[in-house]
Amino acid sequence: MIEAYELYKSKFCKICEELVTFGLKEAQNREREKTMFQSAVNKAKEADKVRGVAVINEFLSYKKKVLTELGQVSDARVIDAKISELQEELNTVWDTLMGYELQLAEQLEEVNKDFERTMSDLSGTFTETVQNYFTQCRELELMHHDKLTETALLIMEKVVKNELEEELPEDLRLLFVDKDTITNAVNTSHDLHNQRIDNKEDDIVTRVGNSKESYNARISEGEVQRNRHRVAEINHFLENIRDELEQYENLDR
């Protein structure tokens, strides 16, 4: 019986070691995908920032030039015309920046969808492989259970016939009072083992699935917040410029 248990233990541990090795490798794959995804997102954001800053700086230079010129003009009609030109240019800046933001939002949406599909594929492959490993564990447990049942019944016969070569410990002897008692004990052990296997499988699969969903949810929520902040930032910038131009007009009058 001891030899059978040691063989069972050795095979079971081998499956577990393979599962752990596979799990660590897949975890590295997921982290690599996250790093590549974040790098792509950061590059897109940086490119958008650069072109947005260029538009704003160009407008600010133009505004400074116009306002400097207006400081040397006393004709109200000329001043009004120049202010109107600035306001029109400001509207163009708003359209451009909002257009950039829309492009970035659409670009990030596509990148996010691709990333979610990739992570779903990785998660699906991981889950399928994990389930296969646990199927092997259950099959091994069943084989061990059958062997243990067979061995226990043989010992039971020897106990009844008083043919055991070695004396059983007292706690173990109590299990061999009759066939039902020993069979129930072996079946209970088998059920507990299967329960532990099932629980561990559910735990691993659930944690990986929840981790994927949680990460994707954070990405989506983060993008929503980024978009809202950027739109508010653009509007705030333009409102400040409009207020400045209005104050200039009022001073002129």
Oligomer: single chain
Order of helices and strands: HHHH
Our estimate of the beta-strand percent is under 5%
> What is the helical fraction, as a range of percent?
over 70%
List strands and helices in order, with pairings.
Blueprint: H1 2-70, H2 76-161, H3 170-173, H4 179-252
Short description:
This protein is mainly alpha-helical and 253 residues long. The protein has 4 helices and no strands.
Structural notes for this entry:
With 253 residues, the protein is mostly helical. Helix content is 92%, strand content 0%. The chain is built from four helices and no strands. Helix 1 runs antiparallel to helix 2 and helix 2 packs antiparallel against helix 4. It is rod-shaped and about 125 Å long.
